[in-house]
Amino acid sequence: MPGTISQYFTGTDYLLGLPIILLTLFALGILLIDLMLPPEWKWANAVTAFVGVLFASAGVWRIQVAYAQRGPSFTGQTAFAQSMVVDRFAIYFFYLFLGGTAIAILMSVRYLEIEHEHHGEFYALMLFSVVGMMCMAAGLDVVLIFIGLELMAISTYVLVGFLRTDRRSNEAALKYLLLGAFSSGIFAYGLSIFYGLSGSTNLHGISVYLRRQMAMTGGDADPIIVIALLTTATGLLFKIAAIPFHQWLPDAYEGAPTSITGFMSVAVKAAAWAMLLRILVYGLYPLRSVYVPLVIFVSIATMTGANLAALTQTNLKRLLAYSSIAHVGYMLLGLIAFGSGQMPASADGIKGILIYLLVYTFMNLGAFAVVTSLRQREVIGDEIDDIAGLFFRAPTEAILMLIFLLSLAGIPPLAGFYGKYFIFLSLIESGHYILASLAVLYAVFGLYYYMRIANAMLMRPAAEKEPLPVSLGMKVALGLTAFATVYIGIFPERFIGLVNWSLGLNPTSPVAMLMR
Amino acid sequence: MVPITTLHYLIVAAGLFVLGVVGVLTRRNVVIVLMSIELILNAVNLNLVAFSRLWGLHGQVFAIFVITDAAAEAAVGLGILIAFFRNKETVNVDEVDLLKW
User: Fold this and answer.
1) What is the pTM of this model?
2) Among A101, A224, A313, B81, which residue has the least CB neighbours within 10 Å?
3) Which chain B residues are Cβ-neighbours of A170 within 8 angstroms?
4) Residue B45 lies in a domain
5) What is the pLDDT of residues A367-384, one digit of tens each?
6) Which one, of A338, A340, A405, A344, lies nearest residue A371 by Cα?
7) A171 to chain B: which residues are within 8 Å by CB?
């Protein structure tokens, strides 16, 4: 059956694949241009990468405009023989990845110069990993999701180990690679069993099969389905770093270049969440009675373990790493609220997760931006002692860091509050009063270790007296993240509306589009 | 003579998978850990190819992607291991001990 090329690459494929194609081309371009640049011109690679992110955003914007022209109820379409679906959910995550990456690029330039590792590959790998993230968020076929996951993960392994002469960076990359590859293998094993059972690599096909099977057995899953679910869920929970699958994360965060730590904590984590929601909420939705008890256990373990471990940390990056694990615990609560609701399930829990990821992107990246700027020629600057007296060296930065920390703790007028608010609200709506009070308790607990940083910053005397130099890119990054943290906190309606839009929620259809 | 059915392949694949997981969890040498990860991915491939006897070519295409991924992962893994070895003359995981708690 000979076909023409237009049969395999249609206009729709082009439109929906354009952001991915553009990012790939820019990344390849950086690799080529880098060969011709003299060492003092390496910052030009960052500019190219930034322009690439802008072009990709324009591509996503084009998709959004094309959808808007087809009426408000048009939510998305598939491309590349149903292997990819760019719906509003995917568009939301595309913007999140691109925003996080843009800010991380701004943070990187001066940091890499200080580390003497300013190579073009750094930015190329960042763009490649964004390509992988987009495939994860828009994947409808498990093959595409798996390949996207690996593209993102392998690029990130290299970025974590980018400081070749630093032993901590080597170690972090090695640990991250071994555990990451291990979890990908387990994940792929689960996917292969789902393929074998349902005869389809498409999430839609798998979901149809599972619904039929669960209806036939009256709600009990076969042991083989349970094995497939457990292996798949293990892989997913590894990627979002929920306890007991979290051990790689503090090590990878501590050893990685600080701007990459920021990038990993927002973009890579958001991509893992997009994949988890796409698989658990769409593909494996019929199995929710099986996985919700598992998620309850994991989220309690995650909140408890991470909050306790964060208390005693003396390294800033490690403390923020444990805090980011704790945030994953809170977000998992949204999944519980969603999965245990009545049919048709209300989407409030999922909405909470999406809002959480949005505010988390800005506040956490902002906190890591401040930690990145502590790195000076002779100072590594990632211990709590290094931030001591920051208020007397760089008052603006210290105030911004205080805003980010208060937001991470969830203090009301700031963005972080709304992330927690919607998650807890959805828990109460679905009747999980004990879990909700436990989570509030841990959120208060979290305030203690954030305030330890604030205490060191504002109350302790500075070891060095001279003011902290801050580069232009870093100023822009700090300004953007601080503005977003405060703005979302004061005017949340627009962003809540954005999340409702991305899930296709309105008063007449309170069910997330992902489930249809 | 028992005919070889899909189930036989699945049992072999499950055995390989368990072998790989045990290898990752118990071996000290990073190169052997990497080899154990390859075993897990090969169990996946065997599963996919065995299932594609029932369902058509999708599984084999997935298997080709998994093979490519395994190659990329091994290449990056050995690269990182070399960078690590240059700074600290060891390939044993229990001597990777700079970062903890």
Assistant:
1) 0.94
2) A224
3) 80, 83-84, 87-88
4) yes
5) 999 999 888 877 777 888
6) A405
7) 84, 96, 98-99
